[in-house]
Amino acid sequence: MATPPPPPKKPVHRHSVTALLWEYNDFQMYLCAVNASTLVKCASVARADEDPKKGYQRLLSERRARDIAAYIDDGNVVPPSLVLSAAESANLKFDEEPRKLTFDLAPHAFLIIDGQHRLFGASKAKSDVPMSVVIMTGLQLEQEVQYFLDINGTQRGVPRT
Question: CA dist 111 to 9, 19, 59, 144, Å?
Answer without folding.
Answer: 23, 18, 15, 9
